[in-house]
Structure formats: structure tokens, C-alpha cells
Amino acid sequence: MQSLVFFTLIAVAVAQNATQPPRPPAPRREQFRVIYEWNAIDFQWDSPEDREAYLNTSRYIPRNVLISGINFYGENLYLTLPRMLEGVPATLATIPVQQVDTAPKLKPFPSWSANTIGDCAALQFVQNVEIDRNGIMWILDNGRIGTLTQKPDTKCPPSIVLIDLKTGKNEMERIPLTADTVNTATSYLNDLVVDNRDGDYAYITDNSAVDPGIIVFRRSDKKSWKIRDSKSMLSVPEAAIFRINGTTINLPVNIDGIALGPQFLTEKGDVDRTVYYTPLSSFHLYAVNASILRNESLSSKGDGALRPYVVDLGTKPSQTDGMKMDSTGTLFFGLIGNSTIAEWNTTLDFGVGQRTIARDPNYIQWVDRFTFDDSGNIYVVVNRLYNFIKNQVSLDEVNYRILKSHTGTKSYIYSPDVTPVTPTPPGASGAAAVGASLLLLAFAHLLA
């Protein structure tokens, strides 16, 4: 009988170890440090004569080139350069991950010709990109250029552009978004997250001043729709004033940052994920399940149809532009007015789980976007956007920085897959219990 108890305890221990793998060691953390910084952005030109020609014709105006987005793949960091003003010769470019120069010249990506202004087959206005677990780059091309000028050019439509980076050919597949989803003159495709499930989805923030919302794009059939909710996606007056290092700016900007949480099982046993978002001019962070956004019928029901499903998680000490989730469910975000980078473990209540991980009024002036590499490092773009918008960029000062820190984690893109629960047929659980009892009785008989 004692032997039976011994074997039973072993069986229980093995079962527990199979369902609860040992926790990985806590990641080693380090302070953020500057790895790249620029007074002005310059490029790898085909020749010195080309550079002079661009300068002389105002196709290159150094003070008008702003770094906004950042992403990682292979040996490169990909940087987005939105064409808000004239004189931005390329809107997507790369620099090496391995630092060889503190202010490297940017290499247009995929090429100079693929960044030609006025060619709707080329990239026009890239605000942000994401690279999924299959090596596909998802590019948000607004089409419209000169958004901070008196007469923006609306020749080209807002589009999703896909590039398979694995092939090395860098061929672009362009999918213009439909007129019932975007408006060529007013839409502003700001940021996106990619969900590599069920045909690949992208959830995109459109912070249009006229019609803000979350655009859902399904790659499998290239279909898209927009879901709106004025209560959670519009800017609020009390958060529209930004104060950074003595500079004040009024920016009533709608839904902006977006992040995607790890997979989880619902009460019904289905797999789902949480989409987090916030307007730029807001102190609140909101959440909604991805399965809700995938319900295309909500797009035709108008404002308020999403509201019953949106959760207001609570407030932040300041406004947030970009944010990024890691593979374990930790959210990284900036707090603009506090010159701060913060994190939140999403398994904790938002009200008590926020933590400051970096604060510096000199080096952290307007946190924009984040990315992770494949070695456990996080990178963040700091771009002093408030000076750019107020036309106060000084080429005698550092205006753009990339900071780096080790977290020991990767992007949310690599969050573990979860298997849905298959419903148990009636009587199956009872049969399993009877089988286990018979097995124990057999052991007892053998050991008697």
C-alpha cells in the first residue's frame, strides 16, 4: 500500500511539472543609454552631386526631416520619416543595429526610386511600420504629403504596403484602402499592431481630426473596415496642452498609440488578445478584445456600437504617443509631459502597476516609438516633436535620439501561441476518471 501511495505522488508531481513549466529567470535590466543622436538627418547619397542637387531644389531641407517610427529586422533598424513638410527625400530608411557611428547617414529603403514623391507606386508618407513573425514588413503609407503645409498633396491614396524581407528582393505589394474605410484628404494612418492569427490582421489607429477610429485590415482577403468610438478615441481639452522643458503646445490629437497583448483563453475556451490604445491628447488607457474589432458588422453600426466592449483601464500621469508590448505582457510607453519612460505589467491593475523606468528632461524629450531586437533589447525614438511642429528646430542642437536598454524580452509579435480548448464530449471526463481508477487498482494488484 505504501508503494501505491509513492507511485501516486510521483504521478501527481509529473503532471504538475508538465502543466506548469518552471519560470524563466528574471531579465537583467539596465538603464537606457543613447546609442544614436543627430542634429539633422542626412542620407547615403548616390553621389555628392545628387545631394547638392536636392539641396539646391529644396527637395532636401535638413531641418524638415523628422524620425518618427522605428522597427527591427536582421541587422537593421528601420526608421520612418513622415513627409509632414517639404524637403524630405526619403520616407523610410535603415541604419545598422551594430553601432559604427553615433550619427549614421540613413539609407533609403527599399531604394531611392521606391521613395519617389508623386509616384503612387512608391512610398509617399510612411508614419510607422511593423514586422511580423514571418518577416513581412507592414508599412502604413498615408499617401497624402505635406500635412503641416497650407496645401497637402492628396494625389496618392492611403495604403498598406507589404514587403517580404526574407526573400531579400524587397518587392512592394501595395493595397490601397477603400473609400468607406479612409478619406484621402483627412485620414492619418498613425500606428499599427499585427496579429498573425487566422489570416493575419492589422489593427491601425487613424487619428483623423474628422473621423478617428481603429481600422482593421485582414491580409488573407485584403479587406478592411473602421470601428469608431468617440468616448474613448477622441482627444479631450484638458489633455490637449503639452508642456515640455518650458515649451507649451496645443495639440488636440485623437487616437494614437496602440499595443497588442499576449494570447489568452476566454471563458468559452477560445483564443483572444487584448488591444490597448490611447488618444495622444488623453490621460486614459483603453482596452478592447481583438475578437470584437474583428466583428465587421460593428463598423456599420456607427459611433457607440463599440462602447459596451471598451474598458477604461484608468489614468496615466501624462500623455502618451507611442507604446509597445513585449512578449511577456509588459507594456512600455512614454509620459510626454514628465520626460519619462514607463512600463506596466498587464497582469496587475493599471492603477497600481505602472512603474517609471527612466526619467531625464534633457534626453527624454517626446518619446515617440519603441521596438525590440532579437537579443532582449528595447529601442526608443526621442524626437522633440513639439519643436518640429512649432517650427523651432535648431540645427545647433541634438534633435533626434535613439535610446537602448536591455529587458531580456522580445516584441509582442513573438508571444507564445495558445491552443483553444476542445469541448469535452458528454461522459468523456467520467470515462477518464474510471480509467485512472482502474490503472491504480492494477498497480495495487501487482504490488500486493
From TrEMBL:
Keywords: Secreted, Signal
Location(s) in or outside the cell: Secreted
SUPFAM superfamilies: Calcium-dependent phosphotriesterase
Leader sequence residues: 1-15
Any one of the GO CC terms: extracellular region
InterPro entries tied to this protein: 6-blade_b-propeller_TolB-like (IPR011042), MRJP/yellow-related (IPR017996)
Classification via Pfam families: MRJP
Lineage: Eukaryota, Metazoa, Ecdysozoa, Arthropoda, Hexapoda
Gene3D superfamilies, sorted: TolB, C-terminal domain
First-listed, main subcellular location of the protein, grouped into a coarse class: secreted
Protein known as: Yellow-x
Family: Belongs to the major royal jelly protein family.
